[in-house]
Structure formats: structure tokens, C-alpha cells
Amino acid sequence: MGRNHDYTFKLVLAAIMGSIAVILKFVSLETALFRVTFFDIPVIFTGIFLGPFFGGAVGFIADIGLMLFKGYPPSLMTLSSVLWGVIPGMMFYFKKKDKKPNIILFIFTIIITSVICFSINTYQLYLWFGEGSYAQLPIRLIVMIIKIPLQISIIYTLFYVTRVIHTNIYSN
Questions:
Q1: What is the pLDDT of residue 18?
Q2: What is the pLDDT confidence band of residue 159, given thresholds at 50, 70 and 90?
């Protein structure tokens, strides 16, 4: 596979994942206290499959897209969106290239990323709402615990399907 084909593949896949992430940011269960969204799945997938730069870019695009259309101000939550792609990208970037990623690495990566991003978002909510933000911590923790197995199974499946497709297309 030539260098141009590989870069084009990465750009196209990142653009597709970015648009899916923006759409998933809008298609969310949102109340006055919290929001349940699955935008992080394409962001994590991009970080794992394409690397931390593309993963972070997709997270940034998803958050900026929501800010532009809903009028939210820039915040630490933008950093959190970027980290959804950068942390998994770094974890998989530094693993040995000859070893196939296993489910344990996926689980560890998603749990670590979830805890870091949850902490950043909690701090931002504290800055906005003060001590009143602590009232929503239990429901946010429950949502995070429910989302982790869904994220792991979807991203693990997406990773292997895309890897097979990529190998079959560019092996000729």
C-alpha cells in the first residue's frame, strides 16, 4: 500500500468518524442535570485505529460542532472530548506493532479514559454550578458504568471489522 493511499484512507475514515461523532452529540438523551451520548465511540475508535492525532481531531470537531450549533461556550469539556481520542490513541500507538491488541487492552483503555474524562467533566460542572453539581454525581456514575461495556463491545467489533476491510482492500 502506498503512502498516499494510506493517508487518504486515514483522512476519509477520520472525516466519516467525525461526522458520526457530531451527529451522536446531537442525538443524545439530555436533561437539565446530565446528558447521555455515545459520541465517544467514534472518537475512541478513531484514536485506536488511526492514532492519537486523528482521534483528538475527531473529538475536537465533535465538540466544536456542538458548540457552533447549540451556542455552548468553550470549556474543559472540549479538552475531555479531545482526550477521548488522544488517550486510546496513545495507549495503542505505543503497544508493540507485532502484537495484536487484545480485549484486556481495550477494557483497560476505555476504563482509564472514562475515569479521566469523567473527572474533567465533573470539575467543569463544579466550576459552572458549584456544589450543586454534586447532586448529579450518582446518576452520572451509573451512566458511565452502564456505558463502559457497550463502548468496549462496539469499539472492539468495529476495530476488527475495519481492520479486515482495510487489509483486504489494500493488500492487492
A1: 95
A2: confident
pLDDT band at 99 (very low <50, low <70, confident <90, very high): low
> Percentage helix, strand, coil, to 5, in the chain?
80, 0, 15
Q: What is the pTM of this model?
A: 0.89
Among the residues of 73-136, which ranges form H helices? 76-93, 103-129
Domain containing 58 — which CATH number?
Answer: 1.10.1760.20
Place of cell 492519537: 52
* CA geometry: angle 146, 13, 79, nearest 5 deg: 55
Count the domains in the chain.
1
Q: What is the pLDDT of residues 11-57, one digit of tens each?
A: 999 999 999 999 999 898 887 767 889 999 999 999 998 999 999 99
86-115 as b/e: b if 16+ CB within 10 A: bbbbbbbbeeeeeeebeeebbeebbeebbe
- Cell, residue 149: 461495556
| Contact call for residues 95 and 52 (beta carbons, < 8 A) | no
What does the alpha-carbon distance between residue 17 and residue 62 come to, in Å, rounded to a whole number?
9
**Residue 154's domain spans which residues?**
3-170
